[in-house]
Design a protein that fits this description.
heterodimer; A: mainly alpha; globular; B: Helix Hairpins; 64% helix
């Protein structure tokens, strides 16, 4: 198909799709309307289970099984990337040279690094209380470590980031989520049910299993992002074309 | 006026589709797919909005004192973001290997089969 015909077909299909979507928009409930039957029920259930952050309650309690699927998608994609970005036969590894970094960049990165790490841990730990949680905090934590790459160089990053360790931790965190789900069965309730005491509302230990599942997800996401970025950075910095040296 | 946020979602989706069709670079195409996906965030959050409502977090809010937006779609948007990020990662890894094997990232030049 030439470029012209392809554009023509796309324009035809796009116009049809646009008309249908716009027509559908006019049939949706009014924007900002007061009718949210599921939302109201979720809020009630979340308050009954002493979880201040309703979204954490949805993700790790009422819809915990879906989060298991979501976590599996993340895990599978890390696995796929690791397989895709492995070192092939016609490539070799070159040790990265130490690099000079501008002094202000180095100072700022080293200053922000501990703050970013603590922020990441804080966001994970307070997932059941305030906006945030395992997914968000995990990404903050993982990217915080990479400030070392910006501020010092790649070798410094590699020293604190043994990828093998993070791969194992990723798998451990994923299984911790499953084990917490199975613990529900052992306790005589259902898989991934919230079987622990709910605790005092608006404290760190409130929400039953929510903080535990949240922590497992936080660890999984942090390790997954570290492994993903490590694979991409390897391609950019270390792996070069050409046979074994 | 009450359909305007939904129309924004439609517009963002169609812009992403246009980019995908006319793309001459696979990395650009992956970006366009991310644009398509971000339209779903707009749609989800628009569906869950409630007039005068605040975030459904009760650590500093007395339950029942104010209406809150729908937490179900917010949780769905979070799932959406995570899935979007992972899909982007895998696609970029694929693009990297394509560029190594074929020496190009232009989808029009990738038509020939190669053993």
């Amino acid at each position: 198909m030439t470029r012209r015909t392809r554009l023509f077909v796309a324009a035809l299909g796009g116009t049809g799709l646009a008309v249908l979507l716009v027509a559908a928009c006019f049939c949706l409930p009014r924007f900002g309307g007061a009718q949210h039957p599921y939302g109201d029920r979720v809020v009630r259930a979340s308050l009954a289970r002493h979880t201040a952050n309703t979204i954490a309650s949805v993700n790790f309690d009422q819809r915990a099984f879906d989060t298991l699927g979501e976590m599996s998608i993340l895990f599978a994609s890390v696995l796929g990337t690791v397989v895709l970005l492995r070192q092939t036969r016609d490539e070799h590894r070159a040790a990265p040279e130490p690099e000079q970094v501008a002094v202000p960049v180095r100072r700022f990165a080293l200053l922000v690094l501990p703050v970013a790490v603590v922020t990441g841990l804080y966001v994970i730990a307070h997932g059941q209380l305030s906006p945030g949680g395992g997914f968000q905090g995990g990404v903050v934590l993982a990217t915080a470590l990479h400030l070392l790459y910006l501020g010092v160089d790649y070798r410094a990053l590699e020293r604190i980031r043994p990828v093998g360790f993070y791969e194992i931790a990723d798998a451990l965190a994923a299984s911790a989520y499953l084990v917490l789900g199975l613990a529900g069965l052992v306790a005589g309730t259902a898989f991934l049910a919230n079987f622990l005491p709910y605790g005092t509302f608006n404290t760190l230990s409130s929400g039953g299993t929510v903080p535990l599942l949240n922590a497992a997800i936080g660890m999984e996401v942090a390790c997954a992002v570290v492994v993903l970025l490590a694979r991409f950075l390897d391609q950019a910095v270390e792996i070069e074309k050409g046979g074994e040296k | 006026m009450s359909v305007f946020p939904y129309l924004v979602a439609v517009w963002v989706f169609l812009v992403g589709c246009y980019g995908l069709v006319t793309s001459r670079n696979l990395i650009h195409a992956v970006g366009c797919l991310a644009v398509c996906q971000s339209s779903t965030y707009v749609l989800l959050l628009a569906v869950g909005y409630r007039d005068g409502a605040t975030a459904p977090v009760f650590s500093d809010l007395k339950p029942g004192s104010r209406p809150v937006v729908d937490p179900v779609v917010q949780a769905l948007a979070l799932t959406d973001v995570v899935v979007g990020a992972t899909v982007t990662a895998v696609l970029l890894a694929l693009v990297l290997q394509i560029s190594k094997l074929h020496g190009t990232v232009d989808p029009d030049e990738l038509s020939e089969l190669r053993g």
